[in-house]
Structures are given as C-alpha cells and as structure tokens.
C-alpha cells in the first residue's frame, strides 16, 4: 500500500471521525492527498484503522467518458432492505437509488474485458446508498472526497434477480418515494456514468492493478439513477427498478 505520513494522518482523522459525532471542520492543507493514488491509499488505511472488512464497493463517474472513481464499503454500514437507519447517525445524509451486482465468485487480480468480468456476476440488485461526508465544509478538493470513501455513509441492499444482459441498464423505469410520496426528480432515470456494467469492469481492472481480490458475495453498486437527493425527513424510503427488484429502509 502507498503510505506516507500524510496518508496515515488523514486516515487516522477520518477513522476517528467515523467513530465520533463531530465532523471535520476544515482539514489542513497538508492533509490533502498528493494524487488519487494517495487518496485510494487513505481509503484502505482508514478501514485498517477501524478494523473493518470490505463487504461492498461503489463505483461511478460524472459522465461516461470521465475517469470513474471508486471506494470500498465497510461491512458495518451494509444492511439488507427492510431495516431502520437513524438520520442523526449521519452528518449530511443524501439519498441515491442504484443498480448493483453481487459477485458469485472471487475475482483474483488480473485484467478482464467486460464479457469476462460479467462471468463473475451472480445477481443484479437494487440498492439505496445513503451518502455522507466526514467534512463539515462542502466544496473541498475532490481528493478529500475520494479519500473519505467517496462519501459513502451506508448501503441498503434490496432484492434482485439472476444477471440478465437483456435488461435496460441505461434508462430503466424506476420509482423512488418517501412515505409514498415521489421524490425522484423529473429529469433523472439515467446513470451519469453510463452503463453500470462498464463501470463494474473498470472497477475489477482498477482493483486488479492494485493487487486486490474481490470476494464472492461482495456487492458492487454502480452509480445513482436519481442523482443525490438531500435527506429531508424521516419515513419509509422505497426504490424500485423495473425488471430487477426493490429496496426499502425506514429513516428515523
């Protein structure tokens, strides 16, 4: 792992913040990761300091031609649909509806084309990601965001089906509601990063170059179809994606 004193210091700060109840007011400029490789090193070191295992991964991009980014998701914040999450446990919670894939087999480090990468996929799933930031200040350099597990707060894993290449992964029909009231903006319903299968393949190869094995059972969530919506209140949050399944969680 690429570690420097700055990587260690930022990882320790982020780990302490995840254990506590006060966000980081303003990170010192000296803590800014030197590059994206350093930011990825902070991610893994943070999980080491927390004693966490990786149960899921997130990957996304601002546009199909942009370089994607990714982050591991610790097991402690991954839950099955139908449970309850307290909004007070997050600093700045946001809500996202996503398509994910569950791995049926380990993926050992290597370089795979999309067809090969998808051979490791067992299921397509609906997930709800609760985004969050350990930083009180918005508009920070994106390397801070990347180091902070790319703003992951929690992941709710819903129902799904065996992987089917014929499904509409680009503009699926969906619904996203809070206590039965639609909250999905009218101009959403597409993934800004493009086809989630392409994002999955990028993640597999990105981790392969880093020598990371992705284990069977891991869930790879691949970007939001509703953007990021601020969590404005409690209630039952429910998302459905036609042909795949649904996910729900009670926010209190």
Automatic annotation (TrEMBL):
Entry EC number(s): 4.2.1.132
Superkingdom of the source species: Bacteria
GO cellular component, as recorded: cytoplasm
GO MF terms held by the record: 2-hydroxyhexa-2,4-dienoate hydratase activity; 2-oxopent-4-enoate hydratase activity
UniProt key word Lyase: yes
Keywords: Lyase
Gene3D superfamilies per the UniProt record, alphabetical: Fumarylacetoacetase-like, C-terminal domain
UniProt cross-references to InterPro entries, sorted A to Z: Fumarylacetoacetase_C_sf, Hydratase-Decarb/MhpD_sf
Protein name: 2-hydroxyhexa-2,4-dienoate hydratase
Organism per entry: Pandoraea eparura
């Amino acid at each position: 792992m690429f570690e420097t004193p700055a990587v260690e210091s930022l990882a320790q700060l982020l780990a302490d913040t995840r254990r506590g109840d006060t966000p980081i007011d303003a990170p010192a400029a000296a803590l800014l990761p030197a590059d994206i490789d350093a930011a990825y090193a902070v991610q893994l070191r943070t999980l080491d300091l927390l004693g966490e295992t990786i149960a899921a991964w997130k990957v996304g991009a601002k546009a199909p031609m942009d370089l994607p980014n990714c982050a591991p998701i610790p097991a402690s914040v991954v839950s099955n649909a139908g449970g309850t999450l307290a909004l007070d446990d997050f600093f700045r919670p946001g809500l996202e509806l996503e398509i994910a894939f569950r791995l049926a087999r380990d993926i050992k480090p290597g370089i795979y084309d999309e067809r090969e990468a998808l051979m490791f996929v067992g299921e397509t799933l609906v997930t709800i990601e609760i985004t969050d930031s350990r930083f009180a200040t918005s508009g920070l350099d994106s390397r801070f965001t990347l180091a902070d597990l790319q703003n992951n707060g929690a992941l709710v894993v819903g129902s799904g089906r065996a992987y089917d290449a014929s499904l509409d992964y680009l503009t699926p029909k969906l619904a996203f509601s809070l206590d039965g009231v639609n909250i999905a903006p009218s101009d959403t319903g597409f993934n800004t990063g493009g086809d989630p299968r392409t994002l999955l393949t990028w993640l597999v190869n990105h981790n392969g170059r880093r020598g990371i094995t992705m284990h069977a059972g891991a869930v790879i969530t691949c970007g939001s179809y509703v953007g990021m919506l601020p969590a404005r209140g409690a209630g039952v949050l429910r998302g459905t994606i036609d042909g795949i399944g649904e996910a729900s969680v009670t926010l209190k």
